[in-house]
Design a protein that fits this description.
Elements lengths: L1 H18 L7 H13 L2 H4 L2 H12 L4 H10 L11 H8 L4 H11 L24 H10 L10 H15 L5
Helix pairs in contact: 2-7, 4-6, 6-7, 8-9
Function: Required during the maturation of the embryonic nervous system for maintenance of neuronal and cuticular connectivity. Essential for maintenance of dopaminergic neurons and dopamine levels.
Subcellular location: Secreted
Family: Belongs to the ARMET family.
Length: 171
């Protein structure tokens, strides 16, 4: 009997440790939930229905990975499913973002599949060595376009024009 309890306790610890999020796992979820939670005032934090309404409003302004995260949770009008209560209720209980994301992962594993791309250090990169796809991504991240750009050199020229506006030198 005693050995059975010991085996069950070991299995519980093993299962629990495999469920916990790793350091870089679920980075989009954790960052987005933290950023969203920071926008809420105390009155809204107490009511999970108000949190859901605020999240839908928050999602309208999101782009890229955060937009996809909102889609998975049901924070967008075009979302196919909705598990917003899995976010709003724990937030109303002041649960930390990483624990909320653990719960969300159990409901929909693709939430934690979202990853941020590596950021390009514009101060140290040779733009000529980047692919056109990467050059377009830089412009897209800046919400800028390159009208009439056909050649790679056109994209590089546009980025060089905009670089002082977006890429600040760190001292």
């Amino acid at each position: 009997m005693r050995s059975l309890l010991l085996v069950m306790a070991f299995a519980f610890v093993l299962i629990h440790s495999s469920i916990a999020l790793k350091e870089d796992e679920c980075e989009v979820c954790v960052k987005t939930v933290k950023r969203f939670a920071d926008t809420l005032n105390d009155d809204i934090k107490k009511d999970h229905k108000k949190i859901e309404a605020e999240f839908k409003s928050f999602c309208k302004k999101q782009k890229n990975k955060e937009h996809r995260f909102c889609y998975y949770l049901g924070g967008l009008e075009e979302s196919a499913t909705g598990i917003l209560n899995e976010l709003s209720k724990p937030l109303s209980w002041s649960m930390p973002a990483d624990k909320i994301c653990e719960k969300l992962k159990k409901k929909d594993a693709q939430i934690c599949d979202l990853r941020y791309e590596k950021q390009i250090d514009l101060n140290n990169v040779d733009l000529k060595k980047l692919k056109v796809r990467d050059l377009k991504k830089i412009l897209n991240d800046w919400d800028e376009s390159c009208e009439g750009c056909i050649e790679k050199t056109d994209f590089i020229k546009r980025i060089e024009e905009l670089k002082p506006k977006y890429a600040h030198n760190e001292l």
